[in-house]
Each structure stands twice: as structure tokens, then as C-alpha cells.
Amino acid sequence: MVRALVAAAVLATVCGTGAACATVCGTGHRTAGQTGTGDGTGHDAAGPTGRGGAPDDEPFFVAPGSHAARQATTWRAAGRTADAHLMDRIAARPQAEWLTGPHPEAAVRDRTTAAARHRRTAVLVAYYIPQRDCGAHSAGGAPSAAAYRAWIDAFAAGLGDRDAYVVVEPDAVPHTVAGCAQVVPAERYALLAYAVDRLGRQSGTRVYLDAGNPGWIPDPARLVGPLRSSGVTRADGVALNVSNFHTDRTTSSYGKRLSGLLGGTRLVIDTSRNGNGPHLGPGTDLWCNLPGRALGRPPTRRTGDPLIDAYLWIKRPGESDGTCRGGPAAGRWWPSYALDLAANAHD
Hints:
Elements lengths: L7 H6 L53 H11 L3 H11 L5 E3 L5 H13 L4 E5 L18 H15 L4 E5 L3 H6 L7 H16 L4 E6 L10 H9 L7 E4 L7 H14 L5 E4 L37 E5 L22 H9 L4
Parallel strand pairs: 1-2, 2-3, 3-4, 4-5, 5-6, 6-7
Helix pairs in contact: 2-3, 3-10, 4-5, 5-7
């Protein structure tokens, strides 16, 4: 239910990413099958480099052959030059790769190898927890706890020692806090802790445990115990606003409150679709395929805030949140929605 990745009155209605509250929460994560990547054509680095050779200025990998890149090519061939130019706003920027199927190792290896070849850092999302999305639009995940631990082991093997940012299980903690009846909290938190610890053993990997968004669990104190049980103190930080629409200001303020309660935990923030903020009017499913939204701040480590490690495009702009407001299934490419996001962008 990463769709919850999305002031006070709206926070109660725009609840979040989880399936625990499927009518108002949720994040519409990518579940359209296991993703894969091939060789990449990211930009060669120039200037100083950081960990693992990733450039300090623009470290994240832009994978070729994305939906947006292919759409731009198609529209140029059809004479839709202006639309193709708008689609380049998405295609030219780094986005996360979601691992959602049963065999992650090859896809993780392909993406991180391509990124390393161009001295870049891959951004990946581990999204296979049992009872994923509490049975909502992005339902699925591993069939058992043992299968999930094996899946995480395979994911880690694919990482090797190459540089990567890994976002661990969008919605899993907030869904549980919100009362998802399909999971046993202690069992879920133990699996998340296993994921944090196992992935964190890879020398080039930074691990960020998802902590939802300001509208889902408005009081961050409710997240502290569950996040600690899920290994957050051994992670590099938490991820906020995954697949949601909350502004940078609202999300960073929320994140700083949460960080203070956790002793200084660092943040990454999903800015992929928050350029116009959340929908402030009445309605349900306010996380799902909202009209009139815009691309947000481009991915960067230059955040201007010592507590925020990066702004990232974790949700892939143009991929549907689910079958709401005329959208296709969660994770499917929706060209008209992508075009609107790009046309409304302020950058």
C-alpha cells in the first residue's frame, strides 16, 4: 500500500499508503510483475566521486528503456513532439526499480551492475513482504516467512558490493500500526528487521525502512515502537511519502518529529509526484491517481538539510496506483497520467 506515500484537516482524510484503510490510504505500488533491467546508458560521471565511485553531484542511475523513455520515442515518431518533450522530464531522471516478484537476484544484479558501470548508484525497492498491501490494490508478496527470508537473501546476493539505496517494504509498518488484520505485528516486524540487517551487511548498500507519510499516521509517536522492532536503529534511515503527494515541507517537518523520537534517524523523501501537494478537497482514495498533480523536486542528494540524505523518485511517475479514477492495475503504465504530471511540473 505504498500508495499512502502521499494542513491538519486533510491529514485525517488522506491517510496513507496501507491497505489497512484501503478506501483512504494506500500507495499503489508497482506490482505488475517482476521487473528487470539490462545494460544501462547512464551519464558518465564528471568531477569528484563518493562511495563506490558514485559522483557526489548527481549520483543516481537513470536506466534506459523506461516506460517514459519508450513513450517519448513513440510520440516523436508519431509527430507528437511537444508531448515527447514533456515525457523527457520523466525519462531523463532517476527512478527506483521495484522488486515485487519471487526471484529478485538477477534483476537486482542487472540494475546495480549497470549503475556501477556508469559510476552511479541504483535505487531499489524491496516489496515482497507476506500479506503485502493488506490485500488491497498491490496485494501479494511471499507465501511464508521462510520464503521471505530466502527472498531477502537472494536480493542481498544480487546487490554484491555495488552501491545502492534500498527502500524496505513501503507501507508494511504503517499498515500494521493502522490495524491490518491479516498480519501478526511481531512476526511482521521480525521479518522487516531481518531485511534491514541482511541487506545492511552489503558494503555498498544504504537501507531505508519505510515509515509511511504524514497523512496516514499523523502522530509519529505511534510509529516509534514498531519501527524499533523492525530494526530502524540499524538502518541508515527511514523513507517517507512513498507514492504519496505530501509536499516537501510537510513531509520534512513530519520526518523531523519522527527522527527526534528515534534519536536522530535520517530521512529520504519521495518527491516524484508532490509538486502540487495533496488533494485538499473531499473524497475517498485520496492517495490514488489524483488528478491535477505534478512532478516534484528532481532526485538529488543536495537537499540543503543535514537530516535529509536525498530526495528520490521512489514511485515511478506515470505508473498507476490502482484501478481508481479510470486507472489501470497498480504498477501499470498510464501515458495520459504521466503526461499530466509532466505538463504540471514546475521544474
